[in-house]
């Protein structure tokens, strides 16, 4: 008998032209054995439906109607992975302004270090069901 428990809506919104962001999404797809997440880029159509600033320079995690940004988004994503993300709980004790300061430094230099793509990533055939246009 199938479980009647509904799956939570969890969407990771990332910079589709950022090399670092795309590598991070590749890693998350590998770690997410239960396919908990859907993915879309900041540059995509789906984001226009949400109340997100146009000039946003952050990863966004959308979970059940709530938006999380920067380090909190990352920690919430990792926490959702269960065992894999259990260590994320430790980082929640670090004050948000410190976590976000570190996040902002990485974000500022991510294109320089990891490169910038010409266009948003195209999901493979196996990944298509995980992506929102």
Keywords:
4-stranded mixed beta sheet; 133 residues; 4 strands; 38% helix; alpha+beta
Q: What is the distance, rounded to the nearest whole angstrom, between the alpha carbons of the first and last residues?
A: 33 Å
- Give the amount of beta strand, in percent: 5-15%
Give the % helix: 25-40%
Secondary structure tally: strands: 4
Q: Walk across the major sheet and give the strand order.
A: 2-1-3-4
So how many helices?
5
Q: How would a textbook summarize the main sheet? A: 4 strands, mixed
Task: Categorize the overall geometry.
Answer: globular
Instruction: Determine the structural class based on helices, strands and strand pairing.
Output: alpha+beta
Q: What ranges have pLDDT less than 50 throughout 5 or more consecutive residues?
A: 1-5
Radius of gyration: 15 Å
Q: What is the mean predicted local confidence, pLDDT?
A: 86
Helices and strands, in N-to-C order? Answer: EHEHEEHHH
The tally of domains stands at 1
Q: Nutshell version of this structure?
A:
The chain is α+β, with helices and mostly antiparallel strands and 133 residues long. It has helices spanning 19-31, 45-48, 70-80, 88-91, 96-114, and strands spanning 10-14, 38-41, 60-63, 66-69. The protein has one domain.
